[in-house]
Here is the input.
Amino acid sequence: MTKEPILLFYEDPYLKETNAIVIDVKDNIVWLDKTIFFAEKGGQVSDQGWINDLKVIDVRPEDYGHVLEKTPSFKVGEKVHLKLDWERRYRIMRLHSAAHLVYFAIKKVLGDVPVIGSHVGADKARIDIAFEGNVRPYLKDIQEIVNNKIRENKEIQIYTKENLRIWKLNDWEIPCGGTHVRRTGEIGEIILKRVNLGKDKERIEIRLKEK
Ligand SMILES: [Zn+2]
Here is the structure.
């Protein structure tokens, strides 16, 4: 039996609260018929928030169990209230969208370098590339391309093609099952930083420049 709930964030990534029915409870893990909580996937971290007044500290990607800070009193069949830590999730959406822009800007500036890893957290995102040398001299150009796209406040399209969710900004297109903002302007200015991972590996860290 699959316990995967209906994933409401695909329909509306801006949905912050909803009600759901408890399908199963085991100790501090809860399964629901539907959810607004994203479970770690494709390098994007899981959401946090609350079910009723209990904190959701993690969502397990393997079976979509919502991990609570302690064992709840609610039972199977009960209706519960879900609430996202929206401040955190919105930062993740902005950073995730920024990471796609940085990816395409890297391709524009450095050519077709292999991406060997990526991650989107609540405070920063990162893209790791195979690159001989130091990317620092190129960061300013990459950052400028991205921040220009952000200033243009372009519309981001998300649609499904052959069962894949596609993120699209003009001719920049990438399959992705994460959560994103609708317009680039929502990201706000970003700052890039280089981290050296050792021989021929470079990490580009992405942070939001908070107003
Ligand atoms: Zn994405």
User: Anything to note?
Assistant: The helical segments are 8-11, 86-110, 136-151. The CA atoms of residues 161 and 175 lie 9 Å apart. The pocket of zinc ion is lined by residues 96, 100, 167, 176, 178, 180 (CB under 6 Å).
